[in-house]
Amino acid sequence: MQNISKPDVRPANPNFSSGPCSKRPGWTLAALEGAFLGRSHRHATGKLRLKEVIQRTRDVLRVPDDYFIGIVPASDTGAIEMAMWSLLGARGVEVLSWESFGGQWATDIAKQLKLDDVKLTDAPYGKLPDLSAVDFSRDVIFTWNGTTGGVRVPNGDWIPADREGLTIVDATSAVFAMDIPWDKVDVATWSWQKVMGGEAAHGMLLLSPRAVERLESYTPPWPLPKIFRLTKGGKLNTDVFEGLTINTPSMLCVEDAADGLKWAESIGGMSGLLGRVAANNVALSRWVDGTDWIDYICDDPDARSTTSVVLVVADDWFQGLDEDTQRNFIKKFTKLLDDEGVAFDVGSHRDAPPGLRIWCGATVEADDLMELGPWLDWAFAVVKAEMKGA
To answer: What CATH number does domain 35-265 carry, 1.10.3290.10, 3.40.50.1400, 3.40.630.20, 3.40.640.10?
Structure first.
């Protein structure tokens, strides 16, 4: 095999995973030294710590005062399932799907909740469906940013203010990284382990006044497990949104979530987070635009994800391979980068076309993305030469 020179400079932080995502710059275990451990989370101090995370979240995201924000079990998945099982069934549902998670929510609605009036509007990886044709007389469920598909909705202009149904949004790889107009969102869910680089297993649930009205006026016909119950005596259980969680949270994770929010505040809050994401995308796009063997899966810049950036291999030789061989190439490619310690977890999601997925959220540094590009070129050249038998 020909001698292919390695780049001289390595990314200082090689963590480019799309979840769990990189910790904030400068993070160490010392950030958790003040955690409220070995005590009940229902003690006044524990509740204050939980409530602090909720309030700091509201402040950073600029969420309206009449919206409720709560900490719920089981990460973003638990939060979106809680919303679907608690709210759906009052009217028809339209599910928008352009990547694996949207497809999973559609499957749960049709096969687990067994709703009769369900419309699936889908699009292939790298594309959005026709948003102008969405029926807002129905409840509408979609991912703001497709974590596995590299595609996001460009804005909230397509969502009418006078909609009849609820908008239920899986926002886990969008919140804290994209400017979400909260007046167009009735329910939003996310996880600490995405944009803020926190720890997994805890979800966040945001409810608009319209969503609360639905909860208090509609009772689903199916039984609800304890961890899904958001009402008590026919009214919203406001304790959940004041730090009295449904089940026992990890106070170590709570401390870490608070630390990430404090960091966000220190860099200017939402404007600072958006600025870092923009800088990261500029850094990565300079490499993509100047490289002939790689391209974005999404050819519409306005719909292109700015966090979980999905790339496809455009090289003619690679395109001539069958899918199994392409996936084997990507496996060798990512292992080589992993072995070198320069880029971890950059392969595309198992359900997506063979390619790369590089996290560009706010906890990543633009300098590391600039230094990543030459390593991707090197790894591509090495693996291609190996597989061609050079």
So the answer is: 3.40.640.10
Pairing between β-strand 93-97 and β-strand 118-122 as defined by DSSP bridges: parallel
pTM: 0.97
Token pair 């400017």 in the structure block, residue: 179
CA distance 294 to 314: 5
pLDDT of residue 101: 87
Q: Is 120 exposed, middle or buried (0-12, 13-18, 19+ CB in 10 A)?
A: middle
For domain 269-388, give the CATH number.
3.90.1150.10
**Residue 191: in which H helix or E strand, if any?**
strand 187-191
Distance CA 54, CA 68 (A): 9
| Residues 305-350 pLDDT 10s | 999 999 999 999 999 999 999 999 999 999 999 999 999 999 999 9
Amino acid identity of residue 85, one-letter, is W
Are residues 330 and 357 in contact, defined by beta-carbon separation less than 8 angstroms?
A: no
Residues contacting residue 125 through CB under 8 Å, at least 6 positions apart = 98, 99, 148, 149, 150, 151, 297, 310, 352, 353
Residue 390 pLDDT exceeds 80: no
Over residues 80-94, the pLDDT tens digits come to 999 999 999 999 999
pLDDT at 389 over 90: no
- Domain edges within the chain: 35-265, 269-388
**Per-residue pLDDT tens digits for 67-76:** 999 999 999 9
Q: Which two three-digit tokens encode residue 66?
A: 């009449």
Residue in 229, 254, 205 with CA at minimum distance from that of residue 48: 254
Distance (Å, rounded) from C-alpha 297 to C-alpha 353?
9
**Nearest CA to 274 among 364, 180, 360, 362?**
362
The percent of residues in the chain predicted with pLDDT above 70, rounded, is 99
Closest CA to 296 of 317, 314, 316: 314
**156 CB neighbour count, 10 Å cutoff:** 17
Alpha carbons 372 and 150: distance in angstroms, whole number: 19
**CA 363 from chain center: how many Å?**
13
Using CA atoms, how far apart are residues 36 and 33, in angstroms rounded to an integer?
A: 9
Q: Is 303 left (phi over 0), alpha (psi -120 to 50) or beta?
A: alpha
